[in-house]
Amino acid sequence: MNLRNVYETAELRRLLTVFCDLTEITITLFDANMTPIIDVNAGPWKNYCSTIGDDPTLLSLCKQCDAAYAEEARKKKGLVMYTCHAGIAEAVLPIESESTPTAYLMIGKFRDVDRRLSSPELVEEKAEELHLDKTKMLKYWEELPLLDSKKMNNAIELMRLITNEIINEKLIRVAKTAWTESVTEYIQEHIGESITIDDLLAVTGQKRHVLYAYFRQYFGVSPKAYIDQQRFIKAKALLENTQLPIGKISEALGFCKEDVFSKFFKEKMGMGMTPMQYRKQKRLQPN
Predict the structure, then answer these.
(1) Which CATH class is domain 5-173?
(2) What pTM value is reported for the model?
(3) Are strands 5-7 and 80-83 parallel, antiparallel or unpaired?
(4) Taking Cα atoms as reference points, which of 113, 170, 111 lies closest to residue 142?
């Protein structure tokens, strides 16, 4: 069975091109496995990154760096700004929703005014570590876009708007198959019960290793992590849109005790607040 995602490439490229034109920053859409889907480049970065050349070891470090911070952003469920392995500033934002397969928007190859993420001293340090031409790297570093706090905040806000557009317009979606429909329908119908791997094996008719492979390929996570995501999405919707007591929501999502649900929401899903605190925060926010 060939599981795949559908990408509305023309509209996605249009959105990413608008971002690049407005910010002069490179932006790339990656799938769950950090394979680039669409890449829209701002010119100045090419000279800097050309110092790495075709060295497979250095290119591998680049991919490892991107993947590590994408995973951090996925766990955080939000944007992560960082310094890449070659000393320049980048940021990654996960794209996740109930109906959108995991993907990532990554921007990068720029300098920050306060030099917190990228500085001449850091570039020199990285050049020495990677055995690259220090003079050339510094020269090309000065050609990179320079963002002050306002420009950076605007770029981040634009990233978030693009992410919302991708989700709302379903520009990335699951290619429907009998397998995906049966497994997602089963999970939604039984979200308030204890769903086991054996249950999913019975529904899909797959062997255990195939089931795990399909979940990783299609949803970007393990079966357990996907079920957790769906419970978390349902929990937020119930907290935001209903008056149900926390205990009733906990019960509806299959948690044996309210404190277990609270720990799941606050710690496991990384919200840093209890369900009640989340509900109060949402009610205080303007419409």
Answers:
(1) alpha beta
(2) 0.66
(3) unpaired
(4) 111
